[in-house]
Amino acid sequence: MTDASGAPWRPVALVFLPFAAGYYLAYLFRTINALIASRLTADLGLSAADLGMLTSVFFLSFAAIQLPLGIFLDRYGPRRVQIVLLPIAALGAALFAAADSLVALTIARGLIGIGVAGSLMSGLKAVILWFPRERLLLANGCFITLGALGAVTATAPAEWLLGSIGWRGLFELLALLSATCALIVYLVVPEPQAHAMPVRASRSIGLKSIYHDSRFWRLAPLSATCIGAAWSLHGLWAAPWLADVAGFDQPRIVQYLFIMAVAACAGALILGLGADWLRRRQGQSEGLLAVIATLFIAAQFALTFGWPIPTVVLWAIVAGVGAATVLSFAILAEHFPKEIAGRANAALNLLHVGGAFLLQSGIGLVIAQWTPEGGRYPSAAYETAFALNTILQAAALLWFLRPDRQARRSASLGQRVHIPYKTKRVAPDRALHGYHLARRAYAVRIATARAEAAHWRSAALGAGALSVLLAGVLAVSMGRAAVTPHVAVEQFGTVSTAVMANQYGRLIGRTPALYVAAE
User: Fold this and answer.
1) Per-residue pLDDT tens for 401-414?
2) Distance (Å, whole) CA 243 – CA 37
3) For the chain, which end, N or C, has fewer CB atoms within 10 Å of the first or last residue's CB respectively?
4) Number of domains observed in the structure of the chain
């Protein structure tokens, strides 16, 4: 981790920390709506669908510039990209502070999304350019850990500021911080030498080639559904769930959001360390991603079906999975060279934020199908929305664990790029020499065998985890079937409501105990 001058502290102080500050602001902007949701609803009379759409516009605008962002990162470098984008985030925050309608808030939120869209990608690109390849997993984990401190700030510290300056004053402060961060990047971060001489090999590799790579699409569905869902739940729907389903008051909700933010920070660091250890021991980290996805699905099952597990543990798992980008981008780095790392990461991150937008707004639309009672939506609304999430993630996990025959028949895009240019001009008589052919065939067979063994290990691990998950569901369902649930039924002068409740109980295999409230 040294630069040309040999000073090990310079990449950390002059590159790592300024870009980490930008990602800190991006994480703070992404999760702050969970804290101010009740205040926005009270001040502007927003419904659940309005709140979901307002918050998810951040991801929509975020996703809209991901593809050109990757090209700009590879062509101009992360420093120049951040200098242009962060002032847009400052402008959006200032407009958000002054907005007095849903339309104005939506436009401001969209500008914020554009302004911080390059924070994660710029930081990861800078890490690739300035840090050794063998330490990328650890560096990425530390980078995302520092950025996730923005989620910690969006809990108790932000709640304290809201009590003194209000949500408008808070966004005015965020506007000032965004402009300051842009100035620091402009004054402190040096230009990497890697952009002085563009690599020829990267010119022929565009987004079309990346999106046509079979290994990319083996990873993308699982990464998008799990990380997108974690971002949407942590960024917005955790707080309404804690208020409507768990019945918590605002101080306790803030306490839970703080624990979730700490879990996101710890998750990034733990996943970075674990993936770095696995890479040095086994050469790949795909199995760890499958385990994390299975744990995430199990946590949502527990929230949906009311398993006897502490709620704080389940929501901490949900928040921690949002840091699984450490694994996803590390897996991409194994398949694509660093010259096109910006485009590859942006191609995947587009699916992350696009999935977060669809899931966050979709959850709001599903919940809005129920009528709120006393300002709170029923638990059935959240259960339905969470169940749809888990179905998508389970399908993506099965797709990820399937044997990758296409990858065994041909080399990955990253391997094709790393073929030396001179080998294409070797004379035919030498290229067809028996020794060279035998050596090449042996290397291909060894690589194929190792890839197949790794895929089968991942498949076995995922199948075992799913078996344990299904067994747990069955055990909990059998245990709950023996318990008589209590259903409160209001009497409206007849017994038809009680009869309907009994019929519903027989349909779901349970016998509810009816408590008829007298008029």
Assistant:
1) 987 654 444 444 44
2) 11
3) C
4) 2
Alpha carbon of 398 to those of 218, 290, 404, 460: distances in Å?
Answer: 10, 10, 12, 11
Range of the domain at 341: 9-191+214-406
CA distance 267 to 320: 5
Both tokens of residue 514? 């009816």
The percent of residues above 70 in pLDDT, for the chain, comes to 73
Q: Is 389 within a domain?
A: yes
How many CA atoms does the CB half-sphere of 392 hold within 13 Å?
21
**Confidence label for 475 from pLDDT (cuts 50, 70 and 90):** low
Cα–Cα distance, 71 to 475 (Å, whole number) = 51
Note whether 401 and 512 are same-domain residues. no
406, 434, 457 - which closes a domain = 406
**Is 109 among the domain residues?**
yes
Q: Which of 493, 455, 474 is nearest to 219 (CA)?
A: 455
Distance CA 232, CA 353 (A): 9
Give, as one character, the DSSP assignment of residue 419.
S
User: Are residues 501 and 391 part of one domain?
Assistant: no
pLDDT in tens, 173-207: 999 999 999 999 999 998 876 444 444 444 445 67
Q: Which of 352, 387, 406 is the last residue of a domain?
A: 406
Distance CA 229, CA 390 (A): 9
Which residue is it, tokens 């059998």? Answer: 478
Q: Are 93 and 221 in contact (CB under 8 A)?
A: no
Who's near 53: CB < 8 A, 6+ residues apart?
106, 361, 364
Residue 170: count other Cβ atoms within 10 Å of its Cβ.
22
Instruction: Give the number of other Cβ atoms within 10 Å of residue 329's Cβ.
Output: 25
